[in-house]
Amino acid sequence: MAYVRKVRTASGAVAVQVVRKDAGKVVILAHLGSAHTDAELGILLDHAKAIVIGGQVALDFEVAARAQSMADVADFREQSLIPDQPGPAPARPVVPPGRTVGTCSRLLYDVLGHVYDWLGFDAVGDAVFRDLVIARIVEPTSKLDASRVLADLGAELVSYKTIDRHVRKIHASGHRDVIAENCFAYATDCGGLSLILYDVTTLYFEAESEDSLRKVGYSKERRVDPQIVVGLLVDRAGFPLEIGC
Description:
- It is a single chain.
- By secondary structure, the chain is an alpha+beta fold.
- It folds into three domains: 70 residues; 71 residues, no CATH class; 52 residues, no CATH class.
- The strands form two sheets. Strands 4, 5, 6 and 7 form a four-stranded antiparallel sheet that branches. A three-stranded antiparallel sheet has the order 1-2-3, with helices on one face.
- Helix 3 packs across helix 4.
- The longest helix is centred in the first third of the chain and has 16 residues.
- The N and C termini lie far apart (87 Å).
């Protein structure tokens, strides 16, 4: 394919040629002449473009073409192969390398917190209990170890005594009924309660003494330890509706 080439000559003029490439070599099809002024360059370029187009009419988009200038053509006559060495660069301030000061899964924490509130569990009105629920979903663990999980999630931490105090308050205040009512409301809206499932299991504790909740019994693991009986009611999708022990 032919195209227009502009070449700087030894005299400083600009030669205008119509060339094409053949096997990587430039083949000159027409030499239009050498220009010494911008006006001469424009005339030669118009002739060269007419040869390349070959009389084909081009669409006029009413966009003014940029005028060609002699200064647009590179002049290598006074350039040396080795460029001048630049002067010493100004000293830059020494910036220490970056370091990671901490990471957290805040997005996971925010998403689980949004679901907690969306289900209506925010009616409990206890931020510590809310964080404990989120920690148990991410990694089922003890109350003592919940602080580690919450730290990984980027949550605001409280002491173990605060967690224990809030859990005892939740048990004593009857908020379990509030949570169960919201669970029933969600299950009713999402498919109804035409089928519900109920299961019972036992959990034993490696402790010697009984209390009002844990009673000595023969568990399914064939252990004689204080244990509790847990009953769970769920809908057809496994969404919990009520738990009792």
